Amino acid sequence: MGAQKSIHAGKARIDVNVDLTHKLCAALMPPSLLRRSGLFSEVIARLCIKHPNLFGRREKLDVMWNKGLCDSNLLITFRRPRSLSLSQQSFIVEHSITPEIGVLGVPLEGFTHSGGCGINLRRFSMGVDFSEPPSSHWSSTTSVKLEHISPINDEGRPIDRDLDGFLVTCSGNSHDNMVVLKQEAQYAVADERSFTRLNFQIEQGLPVLSKWLIFNRVKLVISKGVKLGPAFLVTSLTGGSVVGDMAPYQAFSIGGLNSVRGYGEGAVGSGRSCLVMNSELAVPLMQGLEGTIFLDCGTDMGSAHYVPGNPALRQGKPGSGIGCGYGFRINSRFGQLQADYAINAFNRKTFYFSINSGVS
């Protein structure tokens, strides 16, 4: 069920979009994720409000609220008009609640799925983004944000330890505070036969107060695509590392649809470092349909025991894994429909289905 409405306020036009959908397939969800009762708990919703001229000087206000079966996210963005030759500023406030599965979740069914552990992360952040004007093939963004992260249980009460009695925060309290300076640079170049993409991120926890987290987190993603006759080969390499203060939920999660297919979310491992490689060969079969074969592999590089509480060891995660399989890509008016059939190193099989609408 959806609704879209335009409201005229003076010369401004406010676009409001509301989408409420009853999740009929909720009965197929794992019991550990269906923890809330009531009709509204089985509804996914999306609310979008856009105001292009808030104070009459072309200031833009975007409000986006998404509710899933087990998570929610509220994002408020305010942008002031600036010359295209100057960095663009965005003031951002965000509040989200998400189940912690990738690091603290438990692998199930031969590592093909991950079950919840009764821990959710409630995150509140506010800050400002500075987007530099694109230069040639490069673009960059710098942001400074204050973050307040508090683990909560399924009933919404703050917690500081998991079921085994290990701390789930770095501070030892029921929450972690940090001021994060993040810099992100992107490079992209493409032609008819190939493309190259590079994304480099570095986050620095600033020592504002003595008990606030001080850390350095680096992540690099390199992707290369090459046309081989009618087929197209895409290979990507992802690596990252964290030094300094660290809470368990900040570890790199390895395994899942966007990591190593054939494994559940985080079922391969979780560590202070990670290295993941993905290769996929796509072959056109007919108009709007492609067949693919893929190979994924990933490792925590032996860094799992450096994560506080060593959750990967307690959950029996192998630390490295490999998955391969085949799939199909169908282009439709809803976006690209993706279906993948993967086999992991334990000879267990997993089927993935997703829709890539291309809209963030």
TrEMBL record:
Keywords, ordered alphabetically: Membrane, Plastid, Plastid outer membrane
Keyword Metal-binding applies: no
Pfam families: Omp85 (PF01103)
Entry's Gene Ontology cellular component terms: chloroplast outer membrane
Bacterial surface antigen (D15) domain boundaries: 53-355
InterPro entries linked: Bac_surfAg_D15 (IPR000184), D15-like (IPR039910)
Main location: plastid
Keyword Ion transport belongs to the record: no
Domain of life: Eukaryota
An individual GO BP term: embryo development ending in seed dormancy
Location of the protein in the cell: Plastid, Chloroplast outer membrane
Descriptive protein name: Bacterial surface antigen (D15) domain-containing protein
